[in-house]
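Exercise 3.2. Students should predict the tertiary structure of the chain below and write it as C-alpha coordinates, then compare their answer with the key that follows.

Predict this chain's 3D structure.
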Amino acid sequence: MSAAIRPEAEQDRAAVWSVNQAAFEGDAEANLVDALRDGGFAQVSLVAEVDGEIVGHILFSRVAIITKVGPVDALSLAPMAVLPSHQRQGIGSRLVEAGLEACRESGHRIVIVLGHPEFYPRFGFSSDLARRLESPFGGGEAWMALELAPRALEGLEGRVEFSPPFGAME
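Answer key:
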Protein backbone atom coordinates (compact mmCIF):
# COMPACT_ATOMS: atom_id res chain seq x y z
CA MET A 1 0.00 0.00 0.00
CA SER A 2 1.42 3.36 -1.02
CA ALA A 3 0.72 6.35 1.17
CA ALA A 4 1.39 9.89 0.02
CA ILE A 5 2.99 12.01 2.75
CA ARG A 6 2.27 15.73 2.57
CA PRO A 7 1.89 18.81 4.79
CA GLU A 8 -1.40 19.05 6.62
CA ALA A 9 -3.87 21.47 5.03
CA GLU A 10 -6.72 23.39 6.67
CA GLN A 11 -9.29 21.05 5.12
CA ASP A 12 -7.56 18.05 6.79
CA ARG A 13 -8.36 19.16 10.35
CA ALA A 14 -11.42 16.96 10.92
CA ALA A 15 -9.72 13.91 9.41
CA VAL A 16 -6.58 14.50 11.51
CA TRP A 17 -8.74 14.71 14.64
CA SER A 18 -10.45 11.42 13.70
CA VAL A 19 -7.13 9.64 13.00
CA ASN A 20 -5.71 10.66 16.39
CA GLN A 21 -8.95 9.78 18.19
CA ALA A 22 -9.07 6.32 16.59
CA ALA A 23 -5.37 5.56 17.01
CA PHE A 24 -5.30 6.53 20.70
CA GLU A 25 -8.84 5.32 21.45
CA GLY A 26 -9.80 8.62 23.05
CA ASP A 27 -9.99 12.36 22.56
CA ALA A 28 -6.92 13.55 24.52
CA GLU A 29 -4.32 13.38 21.73
CA ALA A 30 -6.80 14.64 19.12
CA ASN A 31 -7.60 17.63 21.32
CA LEU A 32 -3.87 18.16 21.97
CA VAL A 33 -3.22 18.46 18.23
CA ASP A 34 -5.96 21.09 17.92
CA ALA A 35 -4.63 23.03 20.93
CA LEU A 36 -1.02 22.94 19.68
CA ARG A 37 -2.07 24.05 16.22
CA ASP A 38 -4.45 26.76 17.49
CA GLY A 39 -1.85 28.04 19.99
CA GLY A 40 0.78 28.51 17.28
CA PHE A 41 3.10 25.84 18.72
CA ALA A 42 2.96 23.41 15.77
CA GLN A 43 6.06 23.56 13.57
CA VAL A 44 5.68 20.54 11.26
CA SER A 45 2.40 18.72 10.69
CA LEU A 46 2.21 16.00 8.04
CA VAL A 47 -0.51 13.61 6.93
CA ALA A 48 -0.43 10.24 5.20
CA GLU A 49 -3.06 9.80 2.52
CA VAL A 50 -4.18 6.55 0.85
CA ASP A 51 -6.73 6.72 -1.98
CA GLY A 52 -7.79 10.21 -0.92
CA GLU A 53 -8.27 9.24 2.75
CA ILE A 54 -6.15 10.64 5.59
CA VAL A 55 -4.87 7.54 7.42
CA GLY A 56 -1.96 8.96 9.42
CA HIS A 57 -0.67 12.14 11.04
CA ILE A 58 2.49 13.38 12.77
CA LEU A 59 3.06 16.63 14.63
CA PHE A 60 6.24 18.36 15.80
CA SER A 61 5.80 21.29 18.17
CA ARG A 62 8.08 23.75 19.95
CA VAL A 63 9.57 22.98 23.34
CA ALA A 64 12.34 24.67 25.29
CA ILE A 65 15.20 23.05 27.14
CA ILE A 66 15.75 25.24 30.19
CA THR A 67 19.49 25.26 30.98
CA LYS A 68 21.65 27.22 33.42
CA VAL A 69 22.69 29.54 30.59
CA GLY A 70 19.21 30.04 29.14
CA PRO A 71 16.62 28.28 27.00
CA VAL A 72 17.53 26.13 24.00
CA ASP A 73 14.94 25.62 21.26
CA ALA A 74 13.89 22.07 20.43
CA LEU A 75 10.92 20.16 19.05
CA SER A 76 8.70 17.47 20.48
CA LEU A 77 7.43 14.67 18.25
CA ALA A 78 3.90 14.15 19.59
CA PRO A 79 1.61 12.73 18.63
CA MET A 80 2.12 10.33 15.73
CA ALA A 81 -0.97 8.37 14.78
CA VAL A 82 -2.08 5.88 12.13
CA LEU A 83 -5.60 4.52 11.78
CA PRO A 84 -5.76 1.03 13.33
CA SER A 85 -6.79 -0.41 9.94
CA HIS A 86 -3.55 0.91 8.40
CA GLN A 87 -1.05 0.17 11.17
CA ARG A 88 1.97 -2.11 10.69
CA GLN A 89 2.22 -1.20 7.01
CA GLY A 90 5.13 1.25 7.24
CA ILE A 91 3.01 4.41 7.25
CA GLY A 92 4.17 5.51 10.71
CA SER A 93 7.81 5.01 9.73
CA ARG A 94 7.31 7.06 6.57
CA LEU A 95 5.67 9.84 8.60
CA VAL A 96 8.58 9.92 11.06
CA GLU A 97 11.19 9.96 8.28
CA ALA A 98 9.42 12.70 6.32
CA GLY A 99 8.76 14.69 9.48
CA LEU A 100 12.37 14.57 10.63
CA GLU A 101 13.54 15.62 7.18
CA ALA A 102 11.11 18.57 7.19
CA CYS A 103 12.37 19.57 10.66
CA ARG A 104 16.00 19.34 9.50
CA GLU A 105 15.23 21.40 6.37
CA SER A 106 13.57 24.05 8.56
CA GLY A 107 16.78 24.42 10.58
CA HIS A 108 15.69 22.65 13.75
CA ARG A 109 18.49 20.95 15.68
CA ILE A 110 16.93 18.78 18.42
CA VAL A 111 13.83 16.57 18.64
CA ILE A 112 12.62 14.79 21.76
CA VAL A 113 10.00 12.06 22.03
CA LEU A 114 8.32 10.04 24.76
CA GLY A 115 7.50 6.92 22.80
CA HIS A 116 7.99 3.24 22.17
CA PRO A 117 11.66 2.32 22.82
CA GLU A 118 11.42 -0.47 20.22
CA PHE A 119 10.21 1.90 17.46
CA TYR A 120 11.94 5.27 17.65
CA PRO A 121 15.61 4.21 17.90
CA ARG A 122 15.50 3.07 14.26
CA PHE A 123 15.30 6.77 13.34
CA GLY A 124 18.24 7.73 15.56
CA PHE A 125 16.38 8.55 18.77
CA SER A 126 18.31 7.56 21.87
CA SER A 127 17.50 7.43 25.57
CA ASP A 128 21.23 8.05 26.19
CA LEU A 129 20.98 11.41 24.40
CA ALA A 130 18.01 12.35 26.59
CA ARG A 131 19.59 11.25 29.85
CA ARG A 132 20.56 14.82 30.88
CA LEU A 133 17.18 16.24 29.85
CA GLU A 134 14.56 16.18 32.57
CA SER A 135 11.08 15.20 31.39
CA PRO A 136 7.94 16.38 33.17
CA PHE A 137 6.34 13.09 32.10
CA GLY A 138 9.03 10.64 33.30
CA GLY A 139 9.73 7.99 30.71
CA GLY A 140 12.88 5.95 31.40
CA GLU A 141 13.92 4.23 28.15
CA ALA A 142 10.87 5.75 26.41
CA TRP A 143 12.30 9.28 26.90
CA MET A 144 14.53 9.85 23.88
CA ALA A 145 16.24 12.60 21.94
CA LEU A 146 17.63 12.99 18.43
CA GLU A 147 20.24 15.41 17.11
CA LEU A 148 19.25 16.81 13.71
CA ALA A 149 22.52 18.75 13.70
CA PRO A 150 25.81 17.16 14.77
CA ARG A 151 26.56 17.55 18.49
CA ALA A 152 23.41 19.66 19.08
CA LEU A 153 23.00 18.05 22.51
CA GLU A 154 26.69 18.00 23.42
CA GLY A 155 27.09 19.30 26.97
CA LEU A 156 23.42 20.23 27.16
CA GLU A 157 21.69 19.63 30.46
CA GLY A 158 18.34 20.93 31.62
CA ARG A 159 14.62 20.57 31.97
CA VAL A 160 12.35 20.23 28.93
CA GLU A 161 9.48 22.68 29.11
CA PHE A 162 6.53 21.73 26.94
CA SER A 163 4.04 24.24 25.59
CA PRO A 164 0.92 24.87 27.70
CA PRO A 165 -1.40 22.46 25.81
CA PHE A 166 0.66 19.54 27.09
CA GLY A 167 -0.38 20.49 30.64
CA ALA A 168 -3.70 18.76 30.02
CA MET A 169 -1.80 15.51 29.37
CA GLU A 170 0.02 15.42 32.75
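Discussion points: DSSP finds four helices and eight strands in the chain. The mean pLDDT is 95.
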